[in-house]
Amino acid sequence: MSILHPFLSRVIRKGRLTVIDPDGTAEHFGEPAAGFPEVSVRFVTRTAMRRVILDPRLGAGESYIDGDMEVVEGDIMALIGLLRMNTPWDRGAKLKDKTRVGRWIEGLKTRLGSINRRRQSRANVAHHYDIGNDLYRLFLDRDMQYSCAYWPRPDMSLDEAQEAKKAHIAAKLALAPGQRILDIGCGWGGMAITLAQLEAVEVLGITLSVEQLELAQQRAEQAGVAGRVRFELIDYRDLAERNAGGFDRIVSVGMFEHVGARNFETFFRACANMLTADGVMLLHTIGRFGKPGATDAFTRKYIFPGGYIPALSETLAASEKSRLIATDIETLRLHYAATLRHWYANTLSHETQIVKMMGARFFRMWCFYLAGATAAFESGGMGNYQIQFARSRHALPLTRDYMAEAEGRYTG
Questions:
Q1: Which end of the chain has fewer CB atoms at under 10 Å, N or C?
Q2: Angle CA(350)–CA(356)–CA(360) in degrees, nearest 5?
Q3: What is the band of 297 on the pLDDT scale with cuts at 50, 70, 90?
Q4: In whole angstroms, how far apart are CA 99 and each of 55, 102, 211, 251, 407?
């Protein structure tokens, strides 16, 4: 037990963590506190304990996935939440910068891991999104929105919150009949189809996922909008080379995280070139509350290879070089946390089906991923940004009133 004691006694102050070693010896950390979970963990091997010390995030994840670390009281969501809650990003403590070497190492890992040339981008997308549409149907909403929902009321269902998200974004696009819309990273087509249902617009959705493309095309046919909504398997960089100034609006939801830090400027240059002179873009992305950082080893290895969550400063700095004007920025602080808790609950409720489909090891990996992401949005340094860009200062009304008016129509 001495292996873990220095680390856990320093971290766990509120809430209760009981650690049981392979010999059955139990040690307790922290004190019970309102709002903090009580969790018990049993290690099957001492090797698993050492893995946690050597690399807490990756080591704990792999020990849990392999079955060498078992949560016997509470669940993995409670365990990761307890650790994060004791060290919240916005805790108000004295700030200490990393050393120059530490910052350099972080930056190097991020940029080497997210070069994302065209072929690598397709492989990275396939790693996560081409694992089967049936899995995503089990834990997402009816429209299969795999991004942060929007919760104007806490009592909304996941389906309602995702519908509210699409209406919220549509209102910021300032849609008008006859416009040509580009949806970069269209997923299973829900956003593109919704935009065509809300207004008489034409939409092109692009993706690098074969599984997403096929289902999106089927759904457009079923919704009766296939004449105005089409989908294509193409990289945004390749599309930009053949479509200069062809789109009145661009929307991108949950895709910028896959672009890679080295490609931010390329992404915005492509978007600017594909917009008309008075075009408008709405970017919805996960973002860091603080300064630039690095993608953790667990996420790089198991979830989003090549992915990187940008700081707001990085996003804006890259967009400015393409003369895109940031006309509106909204920070969604806890909306993704609420979304992830629904996904986690849905995953648990379909455990039997997911294990049969993907295996028990995958199920534990998926639970660890969702639990870690939830903690990052509840107590860590992650949030969501919706950034509206325009090429011309005259492209949009001078006040934000039009957004509320349109959102009211779309949700009424």
A1: C
A2: 85
A3: confident
A4: 19, 5, 44, 38, 46
